[in-house]
């Protein structure tokens, strides 16, 4: 994480704008993957429809962009930040509705239901021409002149993503985060402690949706357009791939996965059309030889947890009270 914090601000110093734009994409998709990791890595449930909230955030910002600019693409600095701020609450609202039904299930049933809701939202956006633009999407999402420069938009993205990451870090290290880990390891035991598992799952689902919406809000002005495929299962697969590559349950895992995935895509597509074959091979090797992701390999070699906190009796992560005590304290606080 220290290397990421130190290295990313120096990217615009590299010659040309190509690497700045690649780094902007890495940051946005990294935030998207980190939000997915709150559900998969920390809560222990896999969502195949997480891109729905990424797309809702993107469309929420894009629609307000269109209305504020009157379709001309011209928008003021104040209107720009107002439009960006709409993405997270729109996505959180969508996550609240979807999560209300999904948290009643676990395992494969949870995964399939999230996929079903994701495809439902994709079809609505794809078909609603008068509001979302249908399969044409929404074009000409031009930020104010200052942020049309790739470097300026990169630093804006850097500040927002690092700020969001800091909030997520605090959430995962809070008593709420320890409850999520306990649910991941043993949901039945968590229920026996008197914790309302469904309530915690729903809250976490909404939080993850809001951060995915924040990533989506940044995506539209970056690419200058949004389309219905942002809500599709393929986009959800990108978050899954990034998390698997870096390491689920590691806070920095999705960020590492985003760097590798996006860099490989930018490099490989420059000389071949066989990008799906390349990423498929990478995922196959990861699953076969390092199911815990690349950070798990580093953990095994160095013997340092890198932010992943397994739940085990007597463990005291980072010198804090052991997990059972943290969960019990959270239970008392909620009662």
Describe the structure.
By secondary structure, this protein is mostly helical. It has a single domain (2-330), classed as Orthogonal Bundle (ABC transporter involved in vitamin B12 uptake, BtuC). 70% of the residues lie in helices and 0% in strands. It is built from 15 helices and no strands.
Structure, briefly:
This protein is mostly helical and about 325 residues long.
Please describe the structure with a list of short key phrases separated by commas or semicolons:
335 residues; mainly alpha; ABC transporter involved in vitamin B12 uptake, BtuC; 15 helices; 70% helix; 0% strand; disordered C terminus
**What is the C-alpha radius of gyration, as a whole number of Å?**
20 Å
Low-pLDDT ranges: 310-335
Shape: globular
Order of helices and strands: HHHHHHHHHHHHHHH
Mean pLDDT: 86
Distance between the termini: 36 Å
Give the tally of β-strands.
Answer: 0
| Sheet with the most strands, sense and barrel status | none
Task: Look at the helices and sheets and give the structural class.
Answer: mainly alpha
Q: Regarding CATH, which class? A: Mainly Alpha
Number of helical regions: 15
Helix fraction by DSSP (H/I, runs of at least 4): 55-70%
């Amino acid at each position: 994480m220290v290397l990421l914090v130190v290295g990313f601000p120096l990217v615009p110093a590299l010659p040309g704008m190509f690497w700045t734009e690649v780094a902007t994409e890495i940051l946005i998709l990294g935030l998207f993957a980190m939000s997915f990791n709150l559900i998969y890595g920390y809560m222990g449930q896999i969502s195949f429809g997480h891109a729905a909230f990424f797309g809702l955030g993107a469309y929420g910002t894009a629609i307000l962009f269109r209305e504020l600019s009157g379709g001309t693409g011209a928008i003021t600095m104040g209107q720009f930040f107002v439009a960006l701020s709409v993405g997270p609450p729109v996505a959180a609202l969508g996550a609240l509705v979807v999560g209300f039904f999904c948290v009643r299930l676990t395992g494969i049933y949870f995964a399939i239901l999230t996929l079903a809701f994701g495809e439902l939202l994709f079809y609505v956006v794809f078909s609603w021409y008068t509001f979302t633009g249908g399969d044409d999407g929404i074009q000409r999402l031009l930020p104010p002149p200052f942020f049309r420069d790739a470097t300026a938009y990169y630093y804006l993205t850097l500040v927002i993503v690092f700020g969001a990451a800091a909030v997520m870090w605090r959430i995962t290290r809070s008593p709420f985060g320890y409850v999520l880990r306990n649910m991941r390891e043993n949901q039945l035991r968590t229920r026996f402690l008197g914790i309302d598992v469904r309530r915690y799952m729903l809250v976490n689902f909404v939080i993850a949706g809001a951060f995915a919406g924040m990533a989506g809000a940044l995506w539209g002005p970056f690419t200058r357009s949004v389309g219905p495929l942002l809500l599709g299962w393929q986009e959800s697969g990108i978050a899954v791939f990034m998390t698997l590559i870096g390491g689920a349950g590691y806070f920095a895992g999705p960020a590492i996965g985003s760097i590798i995935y996006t860099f490989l895509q930018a490099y490989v597509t420059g000389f071949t059309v066989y990008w799906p074959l390349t990423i498929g091979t990478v995922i196959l090797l990861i699953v076969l030889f390092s199911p815990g992701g690349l950070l798990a390999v580093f953990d095994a070699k160095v013997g340092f947890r890198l932010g992943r906190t397994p739940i085990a009796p007597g463990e005291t992560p980072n010198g804090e009270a052991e997990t059972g005590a943290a969960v019990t304290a959270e239970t008392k606080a909620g009662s």
